[in-house]
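Quick one:
INPUT:
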């Protein structure tokens, strides 16, 4: 009898502990609902399906777990399996109650309706990229800054002027890589190449040691952009903040020196993007401040080499994996060279714009890779969309990956198939490698030009042998093989 009482007491204690844990779990799972949803009143019943997860952490653990696995899309698949293919879900991401949109129509609405949505990047990201950069400023300031910087980056004259320098560096880099006599980290080298190009465009000339140091700082900065905002030594975000501080110091010294040269009326050897930013003024004669110039520089230099460098690497990879595509792209480039007059040296912008098949190769690479998996917006007011309500102040994550891999938009979406673009014009919101709307990536034309020039010369004279095709993938901050694509570059025997 005594033993039975003792066993009963133990069972009661165990049941109490289990009940307590269940209760604690229920309370923790309800905290975000109490804090963010309950105060919405009747509007909470019109929220998209989903849940806000645990306090502070929200859905970030499942996001990071998925993107550190072999199947990053399992994160969004879990929403679809639980709530159906509604194309719009609620979650708690990057420290904020959020709505994730995954269908072209909703993506288009969020990206183009400036009356209803504004940039909603996490505070941690704005701290890294800059409060005066495009991602941190108001709609009016953005229009002004974009108007002042658009032509020197994406204008016809600017692109025509940049081609010779891009081509010179591409040719020299490919020749150097093929003569190394040893394997190279192909991604590391393409990123260095695009960084050298973008540095020239913005700052004319920088010492090689300074350039390498800047590139290392940018690598640290980029890893912090998608990391959790933990400002403790050893964490990616802490390293990124230190990298930003170092970059700002370098750019401030350059801006100060340029202003001194202007004050002393020292003539310019060449006019680069820095000079354009210093000279730029709006219709009221207002010029950019040092902080604005530095944040614009920091933003452009980061975006201008990361996306191009990665896309070059993946485009070559897909070409190597698809010999029929490679041969078709190569034949087009050979035909372009054949049509050149004997006196012409190098590529022209007109030739680049005639590379129809290569353009499809680049677009298909941008779709399959989806370099930026999402962008952030914030609802300026309560917004009705797809039968649901997005509350004022909530973040909206436009999930590019889901759009680009939707089989209803792109049949066999995992297949690399440039021919899918034959006579195909994607509907608004269904192809978003550079975003959309008034905040479309301001350097999109320059990025595609760099990639086009690189692929033109690679296809004509070089081949690549990947040494570790089974290298594990890393998906954050951007898709890449962990070995940075170890490969050998060699010249084609016919060249």
């Amino acid at each position: 009898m005594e033993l039975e009482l003792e066993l009963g007491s133990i069972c009661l204690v165990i049941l109490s502990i289990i009940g307590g844990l269940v209760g604690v779990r229920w309370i923790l799972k309800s905290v975000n609902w109490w804090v963010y949803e309950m105060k919405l009143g009747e509007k909470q019943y019109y929220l998209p399906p989903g849940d806000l997860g645990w306090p502070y952490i929200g859905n970030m653990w499942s996001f990071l777990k998925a993107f550190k696995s072999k199947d990053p899309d399992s994160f969004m698949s879990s929403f679809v399996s639980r709530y159906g293919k509604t194309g719009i879900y609620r979650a708690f991401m990057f420290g904020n109650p959020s709505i994730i949109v995954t269908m072209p129509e909703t993506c288009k609405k969020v990206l183009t309706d400036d009356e209803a949505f504004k940039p909603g990047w996490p505070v941690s990201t704005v701290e890294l990229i800059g409060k005066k950069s495009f991602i941190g400023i108001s709609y009016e300031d953005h229009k002004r800054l974009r108007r002042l910087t658009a032509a020197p980056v994406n204008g016809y004259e600017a692109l025509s002027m940049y081609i010779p320098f891009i081509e010179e560096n591409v040719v020299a880099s490919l020749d150097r890589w093929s003569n190394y006599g040893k394997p190279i980290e192909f991604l590391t080298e393409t990123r260095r190449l695009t960084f050298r190009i973008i540095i020239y465009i913005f700052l004319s000339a920088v010492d090689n040691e300074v350039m390498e140091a800047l590139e290392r700082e940018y690598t640290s900065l980029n890893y912090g952009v998608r990391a959790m905002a933990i400002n403790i030594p050893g964490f990616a975000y802490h390293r990124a903040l230190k990298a930003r501080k170092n970059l700002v110091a370098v750019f401030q010294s350059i801006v100060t020196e340029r202003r001194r040269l202007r004050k002393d009326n020292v003539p310019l050897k060449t006019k680069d993007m820095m000079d354009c930013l210093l000279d730029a003024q709006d219709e009221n004669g207002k010029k950019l401040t040092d902080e604005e110039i530095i944040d614009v520089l920091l933003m452009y230099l980061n975006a201008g080499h990361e996306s191009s460098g990665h896309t070059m690497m993946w485009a070559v990879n897909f070409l190597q994996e698809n010999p029929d595509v490679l041969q078709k792209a190569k034949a087009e480039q050979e035909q372009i060279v054949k049509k050149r007059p004997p006196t012409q040296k190098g590529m022209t912008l007109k030739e680049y714009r005639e590379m129809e098949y290569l353009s499809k190769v680049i677009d298909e690479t941008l779709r399959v890779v989806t370099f930026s998996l999402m962008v952030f917006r914030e609802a300026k007011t309560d917004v009705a969309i797809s039968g649901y309500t997005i509350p004022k102040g909530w973040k909206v994550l436009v999930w590019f990956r889901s759009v680009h891999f939707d089989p209803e938009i792109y049949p066999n979406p995992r297949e690399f198939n440039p021919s899918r673009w034959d006579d195909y014009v994607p509907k608004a919101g269904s192809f978003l490698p550079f975003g959309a709307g008034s905040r479309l990536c301001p350097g999109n034309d320059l990025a595609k030009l760099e990639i086009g020039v690189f692929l033109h010369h690679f296809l004509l004279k070089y081949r690549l042998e990947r040494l570790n095709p089974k290298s594990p993938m890393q998906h954050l901050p951007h898709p890449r093989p962990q070995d940075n694509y170890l490969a050998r570059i060699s010249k084609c025997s016919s060249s």
